[in-house]
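Objective 1b. Sequence-to-structure analysis of Carrier domain-containing protein.
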Amino acid sequence: SPGSISRDGDFFNTYGGNSFLAIEVLSCMRERLGIDISVRAFYSDPTVAACALQQQKCTEEKALDIPLAPVDVSVLGDLKTNPVQVAMFKVFGLFVVYGIVGIALLPTFAVIRGFGYGIESRMFIVNGLILLLALVLFMLTLPFVVWAVKMLLIGKRQSSRTIAACSWTHFRIWVVDRLWDMIAGGIAETFGGTTLLPIIYRGFGARIGKNVFLDDTVLRNPELVEIGDGTIVERGAVLETFVEFPSGSIMLDGVKVGSRCIIEPNTVLGLGCKI
């Protein structure tokens, strides 16, 4: 019985095995356990412990024979990129981003100056209404400015590709991504679950069919997303279209969801996913 077999027991001397049984045991080990031990090795030391050591040795030898895969730049990014150069590139990009936000603030400043916000002779509620009007105007102006910058820098459509760090294309995509990130979350939370959210995403380049329900879905790159008619995307679902590598390079790829699909809460659809 299995319980009576010792790890150091000899197959021939201890358990009375013979050549025919040895062949049968080795065949069973190959077929059922995937353990490939030669007949000569088994005869030289016919114990369970020796079989285990022999199998471990064969496994290690096979592992050493496996060639290492070449580095794929499209997966890992350009590993030769200077991190200091990438950091300086992004700092410069932030100046551009906040400069564009400053342009979006111009109508707000015009309202504050035109209505004379802060005049002490006015009632507090009047100054409060002026400030509220200015904030609402900024919230309406910024999305239009982001849309205009997006159309100017990258257009309404993008293709699946890998962009090298610190290139002109990288700069354009990175600036638009930072600007879009400022408003995308607020748009999704405000208009999620309504018919307005698909309309807004269509304006930014998404191809969304009829009767599509989007809960609080944030599309990082709407121009790379396609959703068919009657599809439901529930709360917390992620449609991943943008990956930035540690080297600074960027990979873009589309996500396509067919008609009448249901994407359940917290589901993640990776780059290039098609359902």
